[in-house]
From TrEMBL:
SMART domains: CYTH. It comes from Butyricimonas faecihominis. It comes from the Bacteria. This is Adenylate cyclase. PROSITE patterns: CYTH (PS51707).
Length: 155
């Protein structure tokens, strides 16, 4: 079973000069219940179907399964998704031996900028860039599936 070990942080300041790549992401959810989310994503010109399980007590680890699908399949599946779409630009930023995925949200989540880092273990050390702010790992409001239902601009 594939485990995703991830920590999430809010972002303050300008991270963009450090980014080495960016890509537009659009995604929706076929299921957004906490026990399992089923996500359809278009990342650039690629489609993906992802299933994630409920997180552990800390919210850092959870089951994740992902499969690439055709762009056409992803576009069709997005039509079946629950209301609410995530529209964001993802920037990749190196920090030490890790890469942060920094998401700048648009649409109903405009103004939200969040960074995620994937780790090998829950207690793994990593270099924290100056633009990293408050940790929000385990705060359900910041899960993309929740942002489709309760957008950031309406908090």
């Amino acid at each position: 079973m594939a485990q995703e070990i991830e920590r999430k942080f809010l972002v303050k300041g300008d991270f963009k000069p450090e980014a080495y790549q960016s890509i537009r992401i659009t995604q929706g959810y076929l299921s957004s219940v906490p026990e399992r989310t089923v996500r359809v994503r278009i990342k650039g010109e690629q489609g993906f179907l992802t299933i994630k399980g409920k997180g552990n007590h800390s919210g850092i680890s959870r089951y994740e399964w992902e499969k690439e699908i055709t762009l056409n399949e992803a576009e069709e599946l997005l039509q079946l998704c629950e209301p609410g779409v995530i529209d964001k630009i993802r920037y990749l930023v190196k920090s030490g031996k890790h890469t942060f995925e920094v998401d700048e949200f648009h649409g109903e989540n405009e103004g939200l900028v969040m960074a995620e880092i994937e780790l090998e273990t829950e207690n793994e050390n990593f270099t924290k860039p100056a633009w990293l702010d408050k940790e929000v790992t385990g705060d359900n409001r910041y899960y993309n599936a929740m942002l489709t239902k309760y957008p950031y601009t309406k908090w």
